[in-house]
Design goal:
Jelly Rolls; disordered N terminus; alpha+beta; 5-stranded antiparallel β-sheet; about 40% strand
């Protein structure tokens, strides 16, 4: 058991692949590509620093160098939102931001509100966070104090946070009854109208100012104080679910995300036509959306659509009709 709990090898590759920028080049279309696994090819990450106007050159250079040093030596200062990709099971989930959409796979952003309905969704972030939201769970994604934050209002969430990414809070869950600050750990939260439960399997978390130890279950009822009990056997029951979460997100990162990131950079009608050697199709979805693009690839019942508004993944049964142009 102790050996399995120390297994965090997958985090490094997941965080590295997500954080890097994609190769923006568009290769000539090759039909055999559709049946192949995508290849990861990224440019090294860069950072654009603004030029300080109306100041002396050396003063500006010194300010930039000090800023760079502070940025890289203070992880908590790096408040940019990490990239967050995921995939849903079954009928998918509902994602609402500026509009309400059926969602099956792809990238989620701060400001997105997710309702899993009858499905489960697994997500991985570029700063070493994996989490699973179970059926009948609702949460909103945001950034708070440099940490990826889930405002969870119902349901159950299982999470694993890579402790090797730095000793700062990079993940936070806020419920109507409590706030969970996470550095590196495996834990789950359950939220209902009656209150919030948090179980810590490994690592360290802080719940409403109280430190929770591994193997402990903390209950925060809506109308009373925090109660903590020891339930180490619950951690054993979580192991298969944690392994399933790792496997699912690893497949997502290695088979889907590289291709989605590459294709998402190509959005003009002419560029898409040239890439596939065909005219764009009009794709009518059952939720009312009308997309202009092509079916880039298929895996199982999922279709990856390369459209002028970006890459969209849908189930085959969600497509009402595809109109082909001559």
């Amino acid at each position: 058991m102790a050996e399995q709990n120390k297994n965090t090898d997958g985090f490094g590759s997941i965080a590295e692949h997500l954080a890097k920028k994609p190769d923006l080049s568009v290769p000539s279309f090759d039909a055999s590509w559709l049946s192949q696994s995508p290849e990861m090819r990224y440019d090294p990450p860069g950072r654009v620093l603004p030029f300080v106007a109306k100041t002396g050159f050396w003063a500006a250079a010194a300010a930039v160098l000090i800023g760079i040093g502070f940025y890289f030596t203070n992880p908590s200062f790096q408040a940019e939102a990490p990239e967050l990709y995921g995939a849903a099971t079954g009928d998918g989930v509902t994602v609402e931001n500026t509009q309400k959409l059926e969602w099956h796979m792809g990238q989620l952003q701060p400001g997105d509100s997710v309702n899993t309905r009858e499905s489960t969704v697994d997500l991985a972030s570029s700063n070493g966070i994996l989490f699973r939201a179970y059926p009948h769970s609702s949460f909103k994604i945001s950034m708070e104090g440099g940490a990826l934050t889930l405002e969870q209002t119902s349901g159950r969430i299982l999470a694993e946070v890579d402790p090797d990414q730095g000793a700062v809070t990079r993940f936070r869950i806020i419920t109507p009854h409590a706030k969970v600050n996470v550095i590196g750990t495996i834990f789950e939260t359950s939220v209902s109208e009656e209150g919030t439960e948090v179980y810590l399997q490994r690592g360290k978390i802080e719940l409403s100012g109280e430190t929770i130890e591994p193997g402990q279950l903390a209950r925060k009822p809506a109308q009373s104080g925090l109660a903590i009990s020891n339930e180490p056997e619950r951690g054993t029951a979580l192991e298969p679910e944690i392994e399933s979460l790792r496997n699912n997100t690893d497949q997502l990162i290695n088979k889907w995300v590289p291709d989605m990131k590459r294709l998402d950079q190509v959005r003009s009608e002419e560029a898409i036509k040239q890439m596939y050697g065909q005219s764009l199709e009009k794709i009518l979805l059952k939720d009312g959306r009308i997309l202009q693009g092509v079916v880039a690839s298929q895996q199982g019942d999922r279709l990856m659509l390369h459209t002028t508004s970006g890459v969209v993944v849908v189930r085959r049964q969600d497509v009402q009709e595809i109109l082909y142009e001559n």
